[in-house]
Fold this protein.
Amino acid sequence: MSQVESKTVNSDAVSYELIRTLSANKIAALWMQNPPVNALSKSVRVGLIEHLNAAIADDSVEMIVISSKQNLFSGGADISEFSGGDLEPNLPAVLDVIENSPKPVVAVLNGPAFGGGLEVALSCHYRVTFASNKVGLPEVNLGILPGGGGTQRLPRLAGVQQALDMIVSGRPVAAKTLPSVFDVVVDSPETLLSSALAFCEKVIADGSKVRKTCDVQIDVSTAPKELFAQYRQGLATKARGFFAPERCIQAVEASVALPFAQGLVREGELFMECMRSKEARAQQHFFFAERAASHVKDFDKETPVRDIKQVGIIGAGTMGGGIAMNFANAGIPVIMLELKQEALDKGLALIRKNYENSAKKGKLTAEQVEDRMALLTGSTEYAALSNVDLVIEAVFEKMSVKQEVFKALDAVCKPGAILASNTSTLDIDEIGEATKRPEDVIGLHFFSPANVMKLLEVVKTSKTSPEVIKTTMKMAKKINKVAVLVGVCFGFVGNRMIEGYGREANRMMLEGATPEHVDKVIYDFGLPMGPFTMGDMAGQDIGAFVRESRREFIKHDPSYCILADKLVEQGRVGLKVGKGVYLYEEGSRKPIPDPSVLELAKQVAADLGVAQRDISDQEIIERIIFPMINEGALILEEGIAAKSSDIDVIYVYGYGFPVYRGGPMQYADEIGLKTVYDAMCKYRDELGEHGKNWFEPAPLLKQLAEQGKRFADL
Ligand code: NAD
């Protein structure tokens, strides 16, 4: 089909090859090679321009191919360049040379093309790829929009509706769903290059026409005003609080309303608006935070990793069942242990029901359901666990019960087996003391529903070995969780920080705020729901149970969640019984405010001598969110979390903290630690006993605020 004639230039990031086709046409191939993801770093941009100019200048070259010899065509912009520096030539300059080349340029997508990578392809005159290849413009996930003409070229090639979907959602799609973007879509990647060269021959035979995307006219009848209005409406809930999605829509609108050159200018303006937004800073912070979570000092490259081929789970209740599904989904066999056969059968039946529900929604095939169920077996005998590599205990939250379980595990499990607890609050060091191998004991704190929630707090004790930490953190990736390493304390990071959240919500109700006001302010702040709705959903009795276990730490405050305690006394434990802080109609999850609860608050406030007053939105946010941040500062001081970004990952993945705020610690950094510190001092001084009890600023917060520093500077 072809032969390589000679290699004229070979830079590090882009190599240049002259290929003579069967019909003796000469094609210049530019191969991007910038591992690991072929990011469009400066070296790639320089290489592309140099080689494009060389190919254009070489009279013997008839056509130009841009492709890659890596697994990806290109993963897009080099994110490390976001912080600035000498970035010339920028991507638009490269795309300009491509689009204005007098010789036809064809992009041959040998692998995924994302962001700037797809924009390179869109600026070429022709595109060739294989059917299942993935392409997308994921910039919106970093709080920005495609700034290399993607918002102007994609609508011209894919149509306005599909371009909107791709740009606003950021989701990649298969190339075969974009027939108007690609000139050739082959079935398999193996035939890609030969088909691409055959396509080149055809273009040359047809007169080597240059076909610029910018010259494509959008049929305005395909993009009436209503299309955008409907799109905005459909997005209202999903995109609430985010800055970039609306700018993405405006950029695509510009592609319809303006000539190409002006559309590009508008795209540039909107791109810069996004770049300067606090939401983009937060989302980019979070992007790095998530990746940084796996970099811990507790192990290194040399630390060995144990094989996890089979897992045991103790307790087939709410958590045990969900945890088991994670392993079955990853193809890892699980043995579940229960006290009684009946509980075991019930647990396994619930798992089956969950899988069958997924199958009904089309997420699994019937065969996959059976394959996964086949990986789950049960037993009521500890001896069944003699060969497992990891056990996760998820029994009742009681130290004596847990210690008994660990003693039994110590007796039957093979040497080297990792013994983990899913406890939410108990001291895992103490649990480990029940065994003769505390170095193999660790906390694996899953969040409910455990088969859905991405977060896993990996809790090291003072004795856990580096090998066990490394093994469990690697295992988390296999079961599709985001692991964050934390230390032992009451509630670890997530639940310890949430304590103030429920406490202040309750206290403000005592001081005269309505639950629906508090919930609305917190929902509008960006959390999935407010504290009262959350308490009712989780069950007010769960909170009461945790409070009981910590009575000695809260007994100095007679007002501590007193309203919640009184509601539980009345049997108002939440959604599951149709009444909690709110009332619920049968079969509905919609909270209905109940005036009798406000009456109760008034009466209890009078008994405790707490004055009722109007409470502002700002006070609600400060009193609910700032104590969380303050607790986060204590957690950092104590070394329970290694870095503030770890706390942010926990809060976004475990508690639905809005990613456009980057997590509580990034939010604090954004508004300034002095703001948080000053407000803590104000409430400490103005809220009487309550303020003295709960609003003392953490020393670290004080220190950083005084130095004008951020948590991220630590
Ligand atoms: P659950 O009551 O639904 O399930 C506990 C199960 O353990 C029951 O099926 C029970 O029969 C079984 N069990 C009790 N003692 C046992 C023993 N000695 N041997 C074998 N099985 C035994 O409780 P859950 O909500 O799944 O909670 C389990 C653990 O997970 C607790 O430590 C809890 O704090 C923790 N946790 C719960 C959540 C949550 O939201 N529910 C979240 C994170 C962690």
